[in-house]
Amino acid sequence: MSTGRPRATSRDTIAEAACELFLEQGYEGTTVADITRRAGVSRSSFFNYFGAKADVLWYGLDERIAALERRTPEEDPFLVVDELLDGFAPGTLALAIANADVMGVARELDVDAAIRLARLARAVARGVPGDRLDAAGVGGAVASIVLAAVNEWSTAGAGTRPLVDVARPALAVVRRRG
C-alpha cells in the first residue's frame, strides 16, 4: 500500500457517485449526504462543486453554456454553438436522460431544462444581428434545437456519434431562415 497524496476530489468523482446512487435508489431517495459518503468527500466539497443535487446532472452542459455566455456578441452565434456541441462527451446528463425513469429524474430534467433553455437562448441571441425580437426568436430556436439534440443523442446512444452531428441539420435550417 502506497502512502502519498490522497485521491484528488473532482466534480467527476462526485457526479459518478451521485449517478450510481440515482440508479440504485432513485433521485428522490438520494440525499447529498448519501452522495458525499459514496464519493468520500465532505458536504462542503460537494457544495464547492455543485449548487444543488440537480446540478450534478447538468454540469457538463452548464460549463459549456457559461463559456458561451462569456463570448463576445460579435461572434457568429452558429459557430459558437457548433463549438459548444463539438466534443461534448457522454456524461451525467446523457446517463440521466437515457435512464430517466429508473433514476426518477424525468420531472427534474424537465424543470432544469427550462433554466438551461433560457440561458442558452439569451447567450445565442446576443450575437444575432437585427432587432431584439428577431434575436430572441433565433436564440430560442437554437436553444431548443440544442436541448432536443441532447435528448435525441442521449436516448439513441450517446457517444455513438458526435452531438454536433445530431444538431447540425436542424441548426442549418434556422441559420438559413434566421
Sum up the structure in keywords:
178 residues; mainly alpha; Arc Repressor Mutant, subunit A; 2 domains; elongated
Query: How many helical elements?
Result: 10
| Helix and strand composition category | mainly alpha
Tally of domains: 2
**Which percent bin holds the helix content?**
over 70%
Q: What do the pLDDT scores average to?
A: 89
Count every beta strand, where a strand is a DSSP E run of 2 or more residues: 0
Return the string of H and E elements.
HHHHHHHHHH
**Distance separating the two termini:** 61 Å
Radius of gyration: 18 Å
Content of β-strand: under 5%
Low-confidence spans? 1-6
From the spread of the alpha carbons, the general shape counts as elongated
Q: Can you summarize the main beta sheet?
A: none
What does this molecule look like?
The protein has two domains: 11-49, Homeodomain-like (Arc Repressor Mutant, subunit A, Orthogonal Bundle); 55-177. It contains ten helices and no strands. The chain has helices at residues 11-25, 32-39, 43-49, 55-70, 77-85, 92-98, 100-103, 106-125, 132-155, 163-177.
